[in-house]
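Whiteboard transcription, Tuesday session. T.W. wrote the C-alpha cells on the left side:
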C-alpha cells in the first residue's frame, strides 16, 4: 500500500474549512512543517491574520491592505492546503471572467471526483481581492467577525498569478467546493483572496491530485467545535461576486 500511494500526486491540508469558519483560529502545524508537503497553495495564519499565498515555495502573507510580506518558518497556521506543484495539463485562456473560467476549466478535468491544483499566469483587466486584519481573541465565528475586519480592493491592468485549488462538492466539509483562488501580482508586492476577476489573456497549469492527507488540529478549540455546520457560511465568505 505504501508503495502504491507514493505513485500518486498528493495534496496536503492542515485544519478544515469548517473548523476555520467555526472559530478554530489557532493551529498546531508550522510553516516549516507544511513546507515538507508543498511549494504551492493557499491558507491563512493564526487568528486569521491575513491571507496566505504559497507560490514558487515562498509563503507570502497579504495584510489587510494587500501588502505582501513573508512570515517566520515557526509560525503556526490553522488552515493551509499545499501540493508539490507538477502540472499535468496546460490550457490557453482569453477573455474570461471568474464564472466563465470555472465552467471552461472544469471541462478539462478528467474527473469531477479528484482534486486539482491550478496556477494561472495572466494579464488582468481587473482583480477584486480581499484580505483581513487579525481576529480578536473572542473566538467568535468567522461570519460574525469577517464583515468588520475584511478589506476589499481592486487591482486594474495588472499581470500576476492566481494560486488555487479545486475540490469536489463531496469534500465540502474539508475545503471550499469548486475553485478557490488567491493572487499575487508579478512584482510580488500585492495579493489576497480572489473574489472576482476579468482575465484578458493567460495560461492555466493544472495538477491532478489523487491523494489527500489531512492533519486535524490538536487543541481544545478544534475538539469542541461543531464541524457539521458551515455550508452557507462558506459561500457567503469565500465566493462574493461583485
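and on the right, the sequence the group agreed on:
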Amino acid at each position: 500500500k505504501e508503495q502504491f500511494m507514493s505513485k500518486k500526486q498528493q495534496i496536503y491540508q492542515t485544519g478544515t474549512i469548517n473548523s476555520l469558519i467555526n472559530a478554530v483560529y489557532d493551529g498546531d502545524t508550522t510553516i516549516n512543517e507544511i513546507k515538507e508537503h508543498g511549494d504551492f497553495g493557499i491558507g491563512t495564519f493564526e487568528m486569521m491574520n491575513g491571507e496566505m499565498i504559497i507560490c514558487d515555495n515562498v509563503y507570502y502573507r497579504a495584510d489587510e491592505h494587500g501588502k505582501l510580506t513573508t512570515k517566520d518558518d515557526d509560525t503556526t497556521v490553522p488552515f493551509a492546503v499545499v501540493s508539490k506543484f507538477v502540472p499535468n495539463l496546460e490550457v490557453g485562456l482569453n477573455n474570461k471572467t471568474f464564472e466563465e473560467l470555472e465552467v471552461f476549466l472544469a471541462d478539462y478535468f478528467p474527473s469531477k471526483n479528484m482534486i486539482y491544483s491550478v496556477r494561472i499566469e495572466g494579464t488582468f483587466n481587473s482583480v477584486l481581492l480581499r484580505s483581513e486584519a487579525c481576529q480578536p481573541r473572542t473566538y467568535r465565528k468567522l461570519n460574525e467577525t469577517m464583515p468588520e475586519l475584511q478589506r476589499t480592493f481592486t487591482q486594474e491592468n495588472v499581470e500576476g498569478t492566481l494560486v488555487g485549488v479545486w475540490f469536489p462538492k463531496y469534500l465540502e466539509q474539508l475545503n471550499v467546493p469548486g475553485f478557490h483562488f488567491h493572487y499575487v501580482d508579478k512584482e510580488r508586492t500585492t495579493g489576497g483572496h480572489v473574489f472576482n476577476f476579468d482575465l484578458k489573456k493567460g495560461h492555466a497549469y493544472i495538477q491532478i491530485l489523487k491523494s489527500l492527507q489531512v492533519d486535524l488540529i490538536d487543541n481544545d478549540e478544534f475538539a469542541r467545535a461543531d464541524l457539521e455546520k458551515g455550508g452557507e457560511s462558506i459561500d457567503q465568505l469565500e465566493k462574493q461576486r461583485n
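Someone added at the bottom: The longest strand covers residues 191-209.
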